[in-house]
Hints:
This protein has one helix at residues 6-18, and strands at 38-46, 58-63, 66-69, 71-75, 81-88, 92-99, 106-113, 123-129. The chain has 133 residues and is mostly beta strands. It is globular and about 50 Å long.
Amino acid sequence: MKSCSLACVVVIVGLFFAGCGDGGDHRGGFGCTADIEPGIKVQIFDSVTHANIATGAAGTIQDGAYTETLQPTAFDGAGNILYLTGAPERTGTYTIRVTKTGYMAFVLPNVQVTKNDCHVNTVTVIAPMQPLP
Length: 133
């Protein structure tokens, strides 16, 4: 059996890594995706019935002078909003505010969004909304 020369090893290793190429960033020794991840995802429920009430809800996030309106990004088969998201690839310490007609406002301060080698670490917040009396 013949032994493989250094050139052979370089070609084999090169082919291995060429097959892993996705055109993305490769920090940390692995491939990062080109996806844009939300820093915050808010699921909105009725605190009494536990029903999803995200459709018709409005939300904002604030980090210092930065303010953003949360956007619906996922829907069920009937077109109802599943959750609202914001802070795309943005770290920070946020205050989340959610409002909906017929419910008390939901406010959650000090929500910390951090970053990993490739993206932000999405923080999922459950917002139980209390019906107005």
